[in-house]
Amino acid sequence: MSTPYEITAVEDTILAALAPLRASHGVRQVEPYNGDLDPERLAAAVQQWPALLTFYVGGPRADLGQRRIETMGFVVLVCAKHAGDQAKARRGGTGSPGSYPLLRAASALLEGKTLLPGMFPVAVTGVASELQGGGMSVYSLQIEIDQPYLVAG
Question: What is a single Pfam family found in this protein's UniProt entry (predicted)?
Fold first, then answer.
């Protein structure tokens, strides 16, 4: 590949790969992150959960002469809620698929998949708890995708 993919193109393919969770798990939002966890936006955002929200976090570039390998890091925020029951927000229950099942399903849709021609398969590199409380459960699913490209010499 002579030029790297744009960040938005890669993010769009991640979102497309996660889209089947709308039907299978009742996810209401599969979109780029837009400040949904900001304190002034959280109450309105929770009304659209369960949600999968992505954003780019960057990554290193390896210089191999004319060839470069850019590691593109992304986070998928896995957001679930359950009215008044914190355990069900995580584990799932009536009206909520739960963040644990969503983490597993999102990981299965991404791990090892080649999203765009010339890119390496997706690697899931970690999971972290971001917000737990008030019937809300948010985890970050961290992924990396390497893309090689050439630099004109």
Answer: Phage_Mu_Gp37
pLDDT values of the chain reduced to their tens digit, one per residue, 153 residues: 566 889 999 999 999 999 999 999 999 999 999 988 888 988 898 889 999 999 999 988 888 777 888 999 999 999 998 877 777 778 877 677 889 999 999 999 999 999 999 999 999 999 999 988 888 899 999 999 999 888 876
Distance CA 149, CA 13 (A): 19
Per-position b or e across 103-131, b if 16+ CB within 10 A of its CB:
bebbbebbeeeebeeebeebebeeeeeee
Structural contact between residues 73 and 54, judged by C-beta atoms closer than 8 angstroms: no
β-partners of residue 32 are: 54
- Rounded CA-CA distance 69/8 in Å is 18
Token readout for 88 is 């069900």
The pTM score is: 0.91
Taking the domains of the chain in order of start, what are their residue ranges?
Answer: 7-150
The residues with which 131 forms a beta bridge, in sequence order, are 138
